[in-house]
């Protein structure tokens, strides 16, 4: 069956024309429309409010994931090298015992007289004769050890006023701090100074003191170390 021609539609169903709504229908339909819109707004607003905590929680989780990823990225070293491990306390103490080359590297803590001897450029017995301008003039009575590059004479300059008191005999473990000016410095301050009383040698400081001749003694920590001048000479001769 063929569809009717559009002209036939006009005859079958003529245009109804423009007809106005009865009086009062405009206000009725407007009120119904506004009521439906208000009901629809309330219906959709509740789930939106309920979804806000969930969205906030999701955002927080996302931030935590990003922070964790950034922290993991910082732990990875550049290139293909594995991340460096933290040194153990024993490794840290061992590293502190190993000075880098040069006289400045001798500023460190020492546990034994052997360490002092092995690190010194010059080990001498003598006494301070004068102190001025932050320096001491030290008269050398005996050289226990001397590095070939360390100049020495009957009097040397020590770049500190705390090397000793005039007329008080001592043994100094020295580093050549200024080769051009031929100025020496005690190793790590009081660590490198022993006061003499006859043949007895006592470390200048109880706080900055070795605890043994060849091996450390934990029971001697915090006390002045006492030994003999003969022991200091023996260790110096062992270094050669």
Structure, described:
The chain is an alpha+beta fold and 240 residues long. 35% of the residues lie in helices and 22% in strands. A five-stranded mixed β-barrel has the order 1-2-3-5-4. The radius of gyration is 46 Å and the shape is rod-shaped.
Distance between the termini: 127 Å
Proportion of residues in β-strands? 15-25%
Report the major sheet: 5 strands, mixed, barrel
How many DSSP helices? Answer: 5
Number of strands: 8
Return the structural class.
alpha+beta
Low-confidence stretches: 46-51, 74-79, 88-107
Adjacency order of strands in the biggest sheet: 1-2-3-5-4
| Helix share bin | 25-40%
| 3D shape | rod-shaped
What is the mean predicted local confidence, pLDDT? 77
- What is the H-and-E element order? HHHHEEEEEEEEH
Task: Present the secondary structure layout.
Blueprint: H1 6-12, H2 25-75, H3 89-97, H4 113-119, E1 122-132, E2 135-146, E3 155-158, E4 169-178, E5 183-186, E6 193-197, E7 200-203, E8 226-228, H5 229-239
Parallel strand pairs: 3-5
Antiparallel strand pairs: 1-2, 1-4, 2-3, 4-5, 4-6, 6-7, 7-8
Helix pairs in contact: 4-5
Could you write a compact summary of the structure shown?
This protein is an alpha+beta fold and 240 residues long. It contains five helices and eight strands. A hairpin with an 8-residue loop joins β2 and β3.
